[in-house]
Amino acid sequence: MTTPLPTAAAEGAGAPDTTEAPASPWKLALHRLRHQKAALVGAAIIAFFVLAALLAPVLTAISGTRPDTVDKKAVDPYLGGLPRGALGGISPQHWLGVEPLLGRDIFARLLYGAQISLLVAFSAALLITLIGTVLGITAGYFGGRTDALISRFMDVMMSFPSLIFMIALLSVARDVNRVLLLIGVMSLFSWPYIARVVRGQTLSLKHREYVEAARASGTRNSRILFGEILPNLTGTIIVYVTLAVPGLIGTEAALSFLGVGIRPPTPSWGQMISDAVLYYKVDPMFFILPSACLFLVVLAFTLVGDALRDALDPKGSRT
Amino acid sequence: MTTPLLAVQNLAVTFDTAEGTVHAVKGIDFTVERGRTLGIVGESGSGKSVTSLAVMGLHRGATVTGSAQLDGTELIGAPDDHLRTLRGRKMAMVFQDALTALHPYFTVGDQIAEAYRSHFGGTRKAAHARAVDVLGDVGIPEPARRAREHPHQFSGGMRQRAMIALALSCEPDLIIADEPTTALDVTVQAQVLDLLTRLQRERGLGLVLITHDLGVIARAADDVLVMYGGSAVEQADAEALFTTPRHPYTRGLLDSLPRLDAAPDTALRAIPGTPPSLLAPPAGCAFHPRCPAYAATSDTRCTGERPPLRTVAGGHRSACIHDEVTA
Amino acid sequence: MIGYLLRRLAAMAATLLVVCALTFAVFYLFPADPAVQFCGKDCSTERIELVRQQLGLADPLIVQFWHYVTGIFAGQTLGTGQYAVQCGFPCFGYSFQSAQPVWDLMMDRLPTSISLALGAAALWLLLGVGTGVVSALRRGTRLDRTLMVGTIGVAALPVYFTAMILLYLVVTVAGLLPYPRYIAFTEHPGQWISNLILPWITLALLNAAIYARMTRNSVIETMAEPYVRTARAKGLRERRVVGKHGLRPALTPVVTMLGMDLGGLLAGALITESLFSLPGIGKLFADSLNKSDQPVVMGVTLLASFFIVSSNLVVDLLYAWIDPRARLA
């Protein structure tokens, strides 16, 4: 009869989409982000830790300590090897104090621990982005049997108790490169979450007019995937990866805490916490410092990820 | 002079959004008498649904000004506790898509019985019996059995009948039906519309029929209000509107209908352009960017002030400056 | 409904078989020599050979897997002759170090894990769902913003930190509660609570934050549904509109998530159990890791998967019971 316009449900409230579109969604997102104090604080914390990790050799040269140098003079053998001095042995030589027993410098160990934590988390994030995006797009775009196969696989992977399985795998694995092993094992169980989101988005993008038009005009699948679909997924992917990073950092810490992650003498935060738990009553600083680092980094990534989601993916998505 | 069932005066609705204030409805007037059907027609964003929600007091987060009196009782600004006793009981609503408007978790019978009990009390059993009765009234076969089913087990047409049954269950005086047939197949549309008008006549109800479909108006309405960009642009009885449309927008709408008496390959004439943005509406007459009369004359009065509704014939009002010229 | 149940059960059986196969692969294929792994630290060559024979590692892999799977349902005898050991139904492996079937070891620990999981779940539901609902209904207010910022902060707290700070402040400094140890509910309900309250809080905080955010989203989304508007249009009281028509569908995804999280928690609380030295299944797992008692590690891995897969089934059935539309699937 009359032009069948969108239904009445959108009336009034649906006004924003009749306004002119902003120049670019990225600019809009950046604009929104600037007005989020929480996101800025988060970004600053991340920048701080990334810099600290990158500059670890420089900073430890300045402080004059090494992460694995044993300093028996800094601990008191008559007090069961507790650090000498207040607050876990803070002194001009040891800026953040020393470990009980061995007297290794906490400042240096935290810096090198940050290197490991961030390296493992970022590499794993990169890997799951790659695997998750490729499999998610493939499943969503090609559909049919490909989709059924990949989706079933994802379901099975997600019905595993991931932490337990990661530990089991790490405990039987032949001891090669612990860092690579950790990255691999952590990625193995984390990619389905990103793949699922990417698959859903691809499914809805697939039926947009411009994609159908490209397909109808005989554009190659690879061109459509990388030219039309992938660019529209970047926002979502960035949000999910950012939100996956704190989980990965926490998992690395948990694995190292349980003794199946990074092995001594390489320092890692989880390992430090695991050592410190024994001393929580007598040397709380040793325990608080790595925990605080872990807390701050996880918090920072969550803040930024949350703000990114609000800015890039306003509808958000539920787990 | 008796008070009309529903008298709306200078009703305006605004929303505050992050992007600015949206004037969804900009001061409209209409009355609905018992036993008559008012059709409100317009495109998405014309403010027709917002109007109905404002009357019912179901507008969330909107500012409503003006007056709407139901049987002499002021609704706008009334406390929600008071409105609640009127909603469902004195004025009821039939929503567009019964699949989403009915609750997926509860049986159809329970949903009707719940409305009945909330206004009349009584036992569950009595309320359920009442639900079965109204389901029968709206032509649902085996109402006792269907009452125990969930909405997703109903066909589209049956679901919309159940929605109407829900509205009728407390014997309201006024029913507002917002696009009651839009989500249905064409053949079912006619059945549901006929049911609605039959019930309205039998029970002497006032009916407000909101639609974007002039076919629905032609079939069911006694009076018509044409809305565009949040304002009423034309108001007339149905007969006059279809025979002598006055506003260029109404004429555009009528021209875009397919006609049986036209030559088979005549192209339908769509109104050019898109409905106006509510955030940044055009100055003056909201329709001028799409209006053929403005295109022909470039009259500065079209872009100056919003033209008011003026009586152009007995009971026929239109909001166009060119009315004398183009009539 | 019966057909639905059968289909779901079949799917679950298939998933379990895959889980068994993968677990088997991890422990039998991945290590250089499974016998060394299963025997544990400091095993003599003779003992390793004995374990090799008891596990039947000379058999083809498929035969080993067959014995392994059938053992779960029928039990099995490991080895032959005088060195044979009995591993009765359900055989989740045999710990050569403690000379006990893994199943028995796990069942000893199960009550602790169940107490821990249920108490924590009750706590995080109360806190999380309460916060989420309040936040959603007061959306955009200062209270909402404060609560949501709070959930981000709480979610970032490392469990180690929560546990140790609670221990330090409540037990060491204030002396309000005893150092947690497991006391059976049947033995002394009051002490059961006072001993477990700190582990419950530790375990519940993260999930409380996650549930709060999820509940808030879900409630906001549901309250915008047309059927909620219909409930208002019927003239129902706002309390009934929110409580019956809004919250019921809004909390359905919460129920789904609860089921899966509970399933994961029975063996997944290993860090909390380790921090508080509570003898749950997670602690058994962590201890066995340290002792290299591989059969126990494998048994717990399998049991944990079984918990998750079966809780997925329970969740699906629950979902079908709550939402009539799901029964069609």
Give the helix proportion of chain C (percent range): over 70%
Overall pLDDT of chain A, averaged?
81
Oligomer: heterotrimer
Residue windows where pLDDT falls under 50 for at least 5 positions of chain A:
1-22
Task: Indicate how many domains the architecture of chain C comprises.
Answer: 2
Structure notes:
The complex is a heterotrimer of chains A (about 325), B (about 325) and C (about 325). Chain A is an all-alpha fold and about 325 residues long. Chain A contains twelve helices and two strands. Chain A has a two-stranded antiparallel sheet with strand order 1-2. In chain A, strand 1 and strand 2 (about 80-85) form a beta hairpin. In chain A, helix 2 (about 35-55) packs across helix 5 (about 105-140) and helix 10 (about 220-255) runs antiparallel to helix 12 (about 285-310). The relative contact order of chain A is 0.14. In chain B, helix 4 (about 110-120) packs parallel to helix 7, helix 5 (about 125-135) crosses helix 7 (about 155-170) and helix 7 (about 155-170) runs parallel beside helix 8 (about 185-205). In chain B, the strands form two sheets. Chain B has an eight-stranded mixed β-sheet with strand order 6-7-8-3-9-10-12-11, with helices on both faces. Chain B has a four-stranded antiparallel β-sheet with strand order 2-1-4-5, with helices on one face. With about 325 residues, chain B is of the alpha/beta class. Chain B is globular, with a radius of gyration of 21 Å. In chain B, about 50% of the residues are buried. Chain B has helices spanning about 50-55, 80-85, 100, 110-120, 125-135, 145, 155-170, 185-205, 215-220, 240-245, 250-255, 290-295, 300-305, 325, and strands at about 5-15, 20-30, 35-40, 60-70, 75, 90-95, 175-180, 205-210, 225-230, 230-235, 310-315, 315-320. Chain C is mainly alpha-helical and about 325 residues long. Chain C has two domains: about 30-90, no CATH class; about 105-329, Orthogonal Bundle (MetI-like fold), CATH 1.10.3720. In chain C, about 75% of the residues lie in helices and about 5% in strands. Chain C has helices at about 1-30, 35-40, 45-55, 60-75, 100-135, 140-155, 160-175, 190-225, 225-235, 240-270, 270-275, 280-290, 295-320; strands at about 75-80, 85, 95, 100. Chain C has a two-stranded antiparallel ribbon. In chain C, strand 1 (about 75-80) and strand 2 form a beta hairpin. In chain C, helix 6 (about 140-155) crosses helix 8. Chain C is globular and about 80 Å long. The chains are: A mainly alpha (about 325), B alpha/beta (about 325), C mainly alpha (about 325). Chains in contact: A-B, A-C, B-C.
